[in-house]
Design brief:
alpha/beta, 16 helices, elongated, five-stranded parallel sheet
Length: 332
Amino acid sequence: MADELRPAYLIAGSDRPKVDRAVARLRTRFEADAVELLDAPETSGDDAVAACNVLGLFGAGMRLVVVEGVESWKAADVKAVAAYLKSPAPGTTLALVAAELKKDAPIAKAVAAAGDVLLWDVTARALPRWVADQFKLHDAKAEPEPCRLLVELVGDDLYELAGEVEKLATWAGGAEVTEADVEALVPPRAGSPPWNLTDAWGTRDVGGVLREAEKMLDRTGDPVSRTIPRLVGSLTRHVQRARAAHRLEEQGLSPQEAASRLGLKPFPAQKLFGQVRNFSGVELDDALVRLAELDHALKGGSRLTNELELERALVDITQPSDQAKERGAAAG
């Protein structure tokens, strides 16, 4: 924020830890008894304007009025604030705090005319990078993989992620935070990392596949009826990509050359190529057919429980098939 205070600030976004820090920094510019905290669901735009127009206890001193949750305000509330900001009270700063808002939201336009609009959002794809930035704030370092693992274990709650980053950074004491550190110190409360399942499948580890699938089902708060189809969809996409990688390798492409065609970065592509070398093309085709049969069974095509259908299919697509081996040898 600029050294000279503006009449109004809109501080908003899904990056709530950053929003909180910005509000805290703003509050340090004022004496504690010169700050008034209001809650938008219980405070109208007219009420906020009235609070801004009240003189400080000791006269026309510097004052700050903070209104949380203004995303709940209606058009009349925004209109009242917009009218006030045409002639704001001298020495008073109005800070409006919100969750996610669009840049062209009416309240953003109203504040932009007289003050500053600060919007900080974090997309799901950007969460690992956000975690890396949080480590930097604590003078710690972590490579992308530990950051990605932390997101997989904790989920997308930024407050929880920030808390775990602080814990890990303190524990590391200036050393680099590794994947082993994250696994040892962070209790999982999101779904099991999906690559654990696909890694077990790629090494044809039947027991590992079953264990990882069980973890993914246990760690989600959603009903099994919703979790299993998501798991199957994720695994199917991975096997489809594996089949594509197998064909590209047959054409003589290296993992680095095939990466862009697979929609992967070089390292994940190299890892995928390592997995598909454990399967024949016939086995990968059979795996996709088996997953399609599983999808049909989950949609009412079987009298067996979804859990049992999933377990049977995971075993079928992971363990080597003698019949597939024979067909693969004949095709070769």
